[in-house]
Design a protein that fits this description.
Elements (H helix, E strand, L loop, with lengths): L2 H16 L24 H4 L11 E5 L13 E8 L8 E10 L3 H4 L7 E9 L8 E7 L9 H12 L9 E7 L2 E10 L21 E5 L3 H4 L6 E4 L2 E7 L8 H20 L2 H4 L5 H14 L9 E6 L6 E4 L26 H4 L1 H6 L3 H32 L1 H10 L12 H4 L4 H23 L10 H10 L6 E3 L11 E4 L2 E5 H7 L3 E5 L4 E6 L2 E6 L4 E4 L2 E4 L6 E3 L2 E5 H7 L3 E5 L4 E5 L6 E3 L1
Parallel strand pairs: 1-6
Antiparallel strand pairs: 1-2, 2-3, 3-4, 4-5, 5-7, 6-7, 8-10, 8-11, 9-10, 11-12, 13-25, 14-15, 15-22, 16-17, 17-18, 18-19, 19-20, 21-22, 23-24
Length: 592
C-alpha cells in the first residue's frame, strides 16, 4: 500500500475520532473494527462446498431507448435474455418485457448506475422461483460499496421464517444493449400474488386484505387523495388493493381507522390489547432485522406491513423487509452514529419506541434474539464473506465500471470512504455485524453497565453529541429521535409530521398546492412548501432565521413557534439543559 494513501487514511480517521464521529471503534484500512469480540463461527458456516458454487447469472437487456435516461415512470419496450444461471433454473433469450426506472434517491443520485423495473408480457419464473410473476426488480446497490447489504438483509429475514414473503435476491451481471453495466441484484417486486404476499381483496373492508407501506414521501408521489392515509403525522401508502383494483373510499377509511387504533393502543402501553391487533412474531422478527442492520430508513420509509384475517384472528403483520443499501454503518449523520453500537430502530420508529417499553414485548424480543444469535446471525455473517470470496472476480469487475471507492457522495461516512478495496469493504461490513451482534447481545440480555432502561444509553449519547436532541412525554416515556428534532443556530427545530404526532394534531398534505395543514378543533396552521412563512387561522407569520428548513421530505419549523401557536407555556431548565413544555393538560414534555 502506498505510504501516502496510508498516511492520508490515518489522518482522516484520527481527525474524525477527535470530533466524535467514530465512537468505540477504530477503522483499519482493510476494513477491520479493532477491539471488538467476534461471535464464534461454526466450521460448517465457513466451508464453501464446490457443488454449491453456481454460475453467476448474466442478464442482457435490449431496448431502442436507453432505460437509464428516460423519465423514471415511463414504460418502454425491450427484450430480456438470461444466461449462465443453471440448467435447473432455465435460461431464455429475447423475451419481451417492459422497462422503466424505479427508486428515489437511488434513481436521482445514482445517475451512473440506476435501478430498474422489469415487466414480462407473460408471467415468468426467474432463477428457480417456484411461481411465475410479471414484475421483477433490478437493484443497483450503487451506494453500497460492498454490494452485500440488501442481499444480506433479505436472506437473513427469509431465514427467520416468520414473515411469509421476503423478496429473494440474486446477484447478476447486467448488460444493456451490449454494454456492461455492473453487478445488480435481481429480486421480487413487493406485490400481492401467489408465491409472494398472498392476501385477497374483498368488497367488505373488514374482510379484505391490505398491503401498506409507511412512506414519508407518499404525499409528494401520490396522484390522488386516496393513495395514502395519514395517522399521527405519519404517511401510509395503500399498495393493495390499488386504485385500479376495486379499492373504495370505505377501504381507505378502514385502513386509516385500523392504523389509528393500532397506534393509540401501542402508545398506551397495553400489551394485551395490542396483541389483539398485531402479530407478535412478525413484529418481533421485523424489529430484529431493522435493529441488527441499524437501518436508516426504518423511521418513515420502506416499512411494509399488511392486514389479513377474519374476526378475532384479524391482525396487522409486519413485512416484507426492504431497502438496506444505506444500512449497517453506511450513512453519515445518523441520529446515533454509523458505528455498530446503540439502539436505533427502537428510538426512531415510534411504534417500536413504545413497544420496546412494554416488558412483555421486550421479553419476546430477547427470547427470539437468543434463539437466532448463534445460528441465523452467525450464518449471515459467514455468507457475506463466503459469497464475496466465491464471486470475487465478478464483484470487482463492477468497480472497474463504476469507480466509487473513496469517492465522496451517496451519504457514506468517512470510515467507508477510507476503505479502497472491495475485499476491505466486505470485511468491514462483516466485522461491523460481529461488533453489533456482541453489543446487541449484551443489550438484550441486560449486561450493559447502567442499563436501566434503554433510554439511559440514548441520554448518554445525546450528551456526547449535544446537537442531537430528545423529547419525551413524562407520563408516556415518549422521546423524539434526532431525525425529527434538530438544533440549528441555537434553535430547536421540529419536523411538521412529528409535531402533529407529539401535539395530537390532524395533518393533511395537498399534493396539488404542496401545502401541509395542521389542525385541532377550530385552530389551523398551514405551510406551503418553498415559502418562508406559516399561516395560522388565516393570519400570516413570517419566520426569522433559521425560519423554515426543508431537508429532503422533512419540513422543520422552530419548536418555540409551534409551542406559541398552540398556546402552551415553555421554559428552559438551564441547569438540566431541559426544555419544559406545559400544555393545558397536566403533563410535561422534555428535551435534552
Amino acid at each position: 500500500m502506498p505510504k501516502k494513501i496510508m498516511l492520508w487514511s490515518l489522518l482522516v480517521i484520527t481527525a474524525l475520532a477527535v470530533f466524535g464521529h467514530i465512537t468505540q471503534a477504530m477503522m483499519a484500512q482493510d476494513g477491520r473494527i479493532e477491539g471488538t469480540e467476534q461471535i464464534e463461527q461454526t466450521e460448517e458456516s465457513e466451508q464453501i462446498e464446490e457443488e454449491e458454487i453456481l454460475p453467476f447469472p448474466v442478464l442482457h437487456i435490449t431496448s431502442e431507448l436507453d432505460p437509464f435516461i428516460q423519465y423514471r415512470r415511463f414504460w418502454h419496450d425491450g427484450t430480456l435474455s438470461l444466461s449462465g444461471s443453471n440448467v435447473e433454473y432455465g435460461d431464455f433469450t429475447d423475451v419481451a418485457v417492459g422497462l422503466r426506472g424505479r427508486g428515489n434517491s437511488t434513481w436521482w443520485d445514482g445517475e451512473d448506475k440506476r435501478p430498474l423495473r422489469i415487466r414480462f408480457e407473460e408471467a415468468q419464473s426467474l432463477l428457480g422461483s417456484e411461481y411465475e410473476a410479471a414484475d421483477w426488480i433490478l437493484l443497483a446497490d450503487h451506494f453500497d460499496r460492498s454490494l452485500m447489504r440488501n442481499y444480506a438483509a433479505l436472506t437473513f429475514a427469509e431465514s427467520l421464517g416468520s414473515m411469509p414473503f421476503t423478496p429473494r435476491p440474486h446477484h447478476v451481471q447486467l448488460y444493456v444493449n451490449g454494454e456492461y453495466m455492473g453487478v445488480y441484484l435481481l429480486t421480487d417486486e413487493r406485490d400481492v400474488q401467489p408465491g409472494r404476499l398472498e392476501i385477497a381483496w374483498d368488497p367488505d373492508p373488514a374482510l379484505s386484505g391490505f398491503m401498506i407501506e409507511l412512506d414519508a414521501r407518499a404525499p409528494q408521489s401520490g396522484e390522488y387523495d386516496d393513495t395514502f392515509v395519514t395517522v399521527h403525522g405519519m404517511h401510509y401508502d395503500i399498495r393493495y388493493p390499488s386504485r385500479n383494483s376495486r379499492r373504495t373510499q370505505e377501504h381507505v377509511d378502514y385502513v386509516r381507522g385500523y392504523l389509528e387504533t393500532v397506534s393509540q393502543t401501542i402508545r398506551s402501553g397495553n400489551f394485551g390489547q395490542a396483541m389483539t391487533l398485531i402479530d407478535l412474531d412478525t413484529f418481533v422478527d421485523f424489529y430484529l432485522v431493522q435493529e441488527l442492520f441499524k437501518n436508516a430508513d426504518v423511521h418513515s420509509l420502506s416499512v411494509f406491513m399488511y392486514i389479513t384475517g377474519e374476526g378475532a384472528e384479524r391482525r396487522l403483520y409486519m413485512g416484507p423487509v426492504w431497502d438496506f443499501d444505506i444500512a449497517a454503518g453506511n450513512k453519515r449523520d445518523m441520529p446515533l452514529g454509523s458505528n455498530p453500537y446503540y439502539i436505533f430502530a427502537a428510538v426512531v420508529n415510534y411504534w417500536y419506541r413504545h413497544l420496546m417499553q412494554m416488558p412483555e414485548f421486550r421479553e419476546a424480543v430477547t427470547e427470539r434474539w437468543n434463539e437466532i444469535r448463534d445460528e441465523q446471525v452467525v450464518q449471515m455473517i459467514a455468507d457475506i464473506r463466503a459469497r464475496a470470496e466465491r464471486y470475487h472476480s465478478e464483484f470487482i469487475r463492477n468497480f472497474g465500471r463504476h469507480r466509487v471507492m473513496g469517492v465522496r457522495g451517496f451519504g457514506s461516512p468517512a470510515e467507508i470512504l477510507a476503505i479502497l478495496t472491495f475485499s476491505g469493504q466486505v470485511e468491514h461490513l462483516a466485522q461491523w455485524f460481529e461488533a453489533r451482534s456482541v453489543w446487541l447481545d449484551d443489550y438484550f440480555n441486560d449486561r450493559l453497565p447502567g442499563h436501566d432502561p434503554m433510554w439511559r444509553l440514548v441520554e448518554y449519547y445525546a450528551l456526547e453529541r449535544p446537537r442531537q436532541v430528545r423529547i419525551y412525554d413524562e407520563d408516556d416515556a415518549y422521546r423524539m429521535a434526532g431525525v425529527h428534532l434538530i438544533s440549528l443556530h441555537n434553535r430547536t427545530m421540529v419536523s411538521i409530521l412529528e409535531a402533529a404526532y407529539l401535539f395530537d394534531l390532524s395533518v393533511h398534505f395537498d399534493v396539488m398546492t404542496r401545502t401541509y395543514t395542521l389542525s385541532r378543533g377550530e385552530m389551523e396552521i398551514s405551510y406551503r412548501r418553498g415559502t418562508d412563512f406559516l399561516t395560522v387561522d388565516g393570519e400570516r407569520f413570517d419566520l426569522p432565521a433559521p425560519g423554515i428548513l426543508e431537508i429532503l421530505d422533512l419540513v422543520y419549523i422552530p419548536l418555540y413557534r409551534m409551542v406559541e401557536f398552540l398556546g402552551y407555556q415553555a421554559a428552559w431548565a438551564v441547569g438540566e439543559g431541559t426544555l419544559v413544555i406545559r400544555p393545558a393538560e397536566d403533563y410535561e414534555i422534555y428535551g435534552i
